[in-house]
Amino acid sequence: MPGLISQPKWPEGWPSFTPKDCNPKDTVSSDLKKAIIAEYGAEALRQAWIKTCNALSSVTSRIAATGVDSVPVFEYDEIISSGYKSNFDNEQALKRIRAVGCCIIRGVIPQEEATQHLEDLQTFIAQNADTITGWPKQTPAIFHLYESPVQLKLRTHPNQLQLQRLLNSLFTDPTISPEEEKAQCEPILYPDALRVRQPGQDFDGLGPHIDGGSLSRWADDEYRHTYHKILSGHPEEYDPYDLSHRRVAKPSMFPGGAMCTVLRNFQGWTALTECSPGEGGLMVMPDIHLATAYMILRPFFKDPRHKDTDQGNDWKDPEKWELDDSSWFPGTYPMDAQLLSPASHPHLHLEDTLVSVPTVYPGDTIWWHADELLVDKSLIVDLQMCHAVETTHNGTRPAAVVYIPAAPSTPDNKEYIRRHWRDLLAGNPPDDYKYLDGTGTELVLSKQNERNMIGALPIDTISAEGRRALGEGV
């Protein structure tokens, strides 16, 4: 199989999830599941389950066979133009991105410029070493930096802003006018962290997960309605790019240390170094439609292997699964991301379908949809696809990325970015980062003031377009 991950089939440090994790005293989850079954009906759920599992078999086989080639790659100049929506080039490329839910866009930042940014970032960290904190504490790979000069320059780069308009335009919102929809495509520049992972630096991090809250997907009325077509027995009609309910959903209705309160259409990485498969990079399951439908339906069905009798391969047949109204939501913990494993979500065949993304170079960007599966401890929870980060880094150079997502100008997002502008000027950590990440269950208030750091970027050097996206005058 070409291009599969260069690490064990399932790393020992990645957790697994089984019905033994079920808390019988969890009446909230139990009542919620029973209410959803009553709302949609057992027959509609079963119909959706069988359709989804049967369709998944061909998708997972294709991904396992094609490996890294499942992730589409485009050049920045190939995919974008100066217009809005109807003027964007390469409609086939955009259709491919919509179908898969992830992509690499090369050359968003000129390579020489991106390489210089890495040197400048390393200098900035060294100059402020006594002030900057990170995770892990002794040998940080994730730095608690959100407004460093390099981050602000990359975030406000005109190519970033134009690309984010394109990505936001892939989403539709029939509840608003075409003029409002166009305005909603204007990006807000959500402040996120950065990662510099050294060669040989291993971490189990977080196994496959989908950002954007976990139990919130079922518990929040608007969030659940995003998946109405799936739950009502018609997963083939589900549109992952419809913002009608998603834009007002509350993924952080169960507050936690890894919760994002902003709607990000796509999470994104901007690479500052070359990174190939096996060098500590990103892993994704490159499917958005069926993987999401499966994840939403999975809690309502019981694996036939729960019985004492030997079921062999009966679990592969979705018709052998029984309705489950227990309190167990597989891999679902209210204050965390949605977690996945082969044990809890067997039809996804994650051992074979979680693939490393192709090699990226300085200035390239990686993007993945709100509901797609990924793995990386360094990511903050949002609406996203199943993803992961390789547990080992076998390369000879650092793997450095800056997290820059594509977030639309929805009313809630605009309110967040207005507050961010005030915090940016004052040097305060952004709302979602008031507390330090990687400190376990303890909430540790951040005392960093990035305006007071040596070499902080003067805000008036940022373009007017960039300042607006950062929150000025919004």
UniProtKB/TrEMBL annotation:
Q: Which domain of life is it from?
A: Eukaryota
What the entry lists under Gene3D superfamilies is as follows: B-lactam Antibiotic, Isopenicillin N Synthase, Chain
Give the start-end ranges of region Disordered.
1-21
Name of the protein: Uncharacterized protein
Native organism: Capronia epimyces CBS 606.96
